[in-house]
Specification:
Layout: E1 26-30, E2 36-40, H1 73-76, H2 88-117
Antiparallel strand pairs: 1-2
Length: about 120
């Protein structure tokens, strides 16, 4: 008969913070060498939201504010008017609203000219 040795399941936490708090969660990760090491998990952020309808903006990563510093410009915004702040639907509504207001003004002006001509 032979004895089976159990692998060592002890993990040392990374850094000088010994507690498993909300912001310092850690998970054990097995390295290719068979060693268990602790890996700190960063919290998921809600990500950027639309300024009008408050929905999450698609196409932009959900990171902490400080992490956006390391991203490229194309990863932080969307190449459109109001790119990183307003969603496409709300921008479309703004454009349509502005167009309709201009049309309304033009119609009013035309009616006023016709009335004065009579």
């Amino acid at each position: 008969y032979h004895t089976v040795k159990m692998p060592d399941a002890r993990v040392t936490r990374v850094g000088r913070h010994p507690y498993n708090t909300k912001s310092k969660k850690a998970t054990p990760i097995r390295t290719p060498g068979g060693k268990l090491v602790s890996q700190t998990i960063t919290k998921k952020s809600k990500g950027p939201r639309c300024s009008d309808c408050k929905t999450s903006l698609p196409g932009i990563k959900h990171l902490k504010s400080s992490a956006y510093r390391n991203l490229k410009k194309r990863e932080k915004t969307v190449t459109r008017a109001y790119g990183g702040s307003t969603c496409a639907g709300c921008v479309r509504m703004r454009i349509v609203r502005a167009f309709l207001l201009e049309e309304q003004k033009a119609v009013k002006k035309l009616l006023a000219e016709r009335a004065s001509a009579k």
